[in-house]
Amino acid sequence: MRALKLYAAFIVSLYLSPVCYVCASAEASADQQSQLSRLLEHSILAEGQAIADVRRFCDRRIAVLSTPASWSAWQQEAERIQHSVLESIVFRGVPPSWRDASRRVEWLGSIPGGPGYRIKKLRYEAIPGLWIPAVLYEPEELRERVPVVLNVNGHDSKGKAAVYKQIRCINQAKRGMLALNVEWLGMGQLQVDGFSHARMNQLDLCGTSGLAVFYLAMGRALDVLVDHPHADVDRVAMAGLSGGGWQTIVLSSLDRRVTLANPVAGYSSFKTRVQYYSDLGDSEQTPTDLASVADYTHLTALRAPRPTLLTYNSKDNCCFASGQALPPLLQASAPVYELAGAGARLRSHINDNPGTHNFERENREQLYKMLGDHFFARKSAYDFKEMESENEVKSSEELNVPLPENNLDFHKLALNLASNLPRHQKRASTDAPRAATAKPTRNSVEHIARLTDYTPTGELVGEMEAGELNARFWRIQLDDDWTVPVAELWLGKPQDTACVVADDGRASTAKQVDRLLAEGFRVLAVDPFYVGESKLAKRGYLFSLLVSSVGARPVGVQADQLQAVSRWATTQFGKPIKRHVAVGPRISLAALIAAATAHDDERPDEVVLYGSIDSLHDVIENNWSADKYPEMFCFGLLEHCDIEDMIELAKPSSIARK
After folding, report:
1. Domains in the chain and their CATH numbers?
2. Which of 312, 394, 599, 601 is the most buried (most CB within 10 A)?
3. What angle is formed at CA 200 by the lines to CA 198 and CA 204, rounded to 5 degrees?
């Protein structure tokens, strides 16, 4: 009856005062929009809830190192860990042409070094079409086999020309060692957009481990050294700062050719990273699924019984400060060294001067001492104090190594890989051979996105009214993992329910919500993982990488949460959500995955996607990166299916893209 009266009043006002009606309607609409915006912006989660949830979620899923009962038991376990990391993580989905490629090294002349050594320029092929520049510091008088050192660098724009790295290499050469100074992907001569580390994940989307490019770049540099005619393969060292420290522990733990290692301020346990923002690592340091298979504590223990020096800085202004990073590594690995009867071969050094993020003189001298103790033990005249070499440092231009045109990078590699995907389709743009695979199924997409059937529980945490607009605020608990904030809004007595999500959070959805309310829907405005109120305020994308590393997928977490909210709504309101509305390319992918994998009795009638990509190929062709679009890089998703495949799987849901 009330609705009829309102309709009659509307008709009368329309005929009697059209201008005034339009003005009043606009004012009412603006007022309702303002009220609606305030309700959508209302806080639901407890302070710190979003970061607490993700920390708890990740911490529980990190592999834990257990101290073995005996050395023989550890040897068996070490072999298992090494195999699992290499086959399941590093080389997952890698084309045989990468892994089995023949060694290609091109020597490109020499330049004068300093007293007693020369500098040889070279480039080597990490994978077919991707060349790495390097310089070898070679003693002038070589009559016997000598120790070799692989020197790697971290996130330093100067790359191989960094002064502290050059001095390290010069000192090694003056002590009679072969010192290889290699460029790192994305640094120095390789500092190009396509080598941005956050673009490594483009390869992951194609089902090929982006980590493999890093690993092969390191491993083939080691090949260059051990292939040298004067290399002593029993005395092979590796050292580097920061990202170079990360490279050092990864290669030296998995490649037993590295007999001595000195990672400097390069890594910490994943358990440490969960708690300290400063220790969260980039894409290569937090690769998909690694933390679920092995922690960096495992990798450190894999070094036993080989000599290892763990160097950290007490006042590190970047990452991996000694107080937080070093103790868990020693606690985990020292017992393994003791089992091997090699406790003295595991050393640590904490630098106080300057104590910042560095590989300066004191830290370098600790490396020289380690090399002397283990590689020159019979040489009484060996002195670990640094030889002054500053006047022998070269410029970047002097150390420049010519590279081929069109040298491959992450983006170019991803474009090549994607040209033949998904594997069940034949794309017109390529004639490359490939193995045929079956069309994707709901189960296969569920597996790729790592979905979980959560049992949701709703907690009402507030109610509000704004004129005729009603609101209730819910925290939906998903088992003991996630807390999802939901704002329920309605006018009158709605018969159906709609769900709205957006890349920019529910506070940005006033127009979509207003339209749904006008259609008579009850609206659930939801902020799933990584958006809106659930967005992590600090280093969010690095936590999203950690979520992938512990075996989940950020887009899968979002899809899980949307399905759980639908499950809760079905119980709460007596029937499934009728319409899902997603605004933005990132959350649209999650909404589509949720619809494609939903149980039959929970599938929405309609899914409306605003700003959705047309194809997962768009992610690569637009050269997107994981720091801006972390949810889009679900490992292997493009390998097995594309947007149209998921639309087909979502039937009988109607999918509309706008």
Report:
1. 59-418 (3.40.50.1820), 447-657 (3.40.50.1820)
2. 312
3. 120
DSSP state for residue 183 in the 8-state scheme: P
- The SS3 assignment for 58 reads helix
Tokens of 636: 């292997």
Three-state helix/strand/coil letters over 271-318: HHHHHCHHHCCCCCCCCCCHHHHCCHHHHHHCCCCCCEEEEEECCCCC
Please answer whether residues 431 and 535 qualify as being in contact, where contact means their C-beta atoms are separated by less than 8 angstroms.
Answer: no
The residue with tokens 């959705």 is: 612
**How far is Cα of residue 545 from the mean position of the Cα atoms in its chain?**
3
- Whether this model's pTM surpasses 0.70: yes
- CA-to-CA distance for 372 and 489, rounded, in angstroms? 72
From 423, 427, 447, 450, select the one nearest 437 (Cα to Cα). 423
Query: What residues contact 34, with CB distance under 8 A and at least 6 apart?
Result: none
* Three-state secondary structure readout of 549-594: HCCCCHHHHHHHHHHHHHHHHHHHHCCCCCEEEEECHHHHHHHHHH
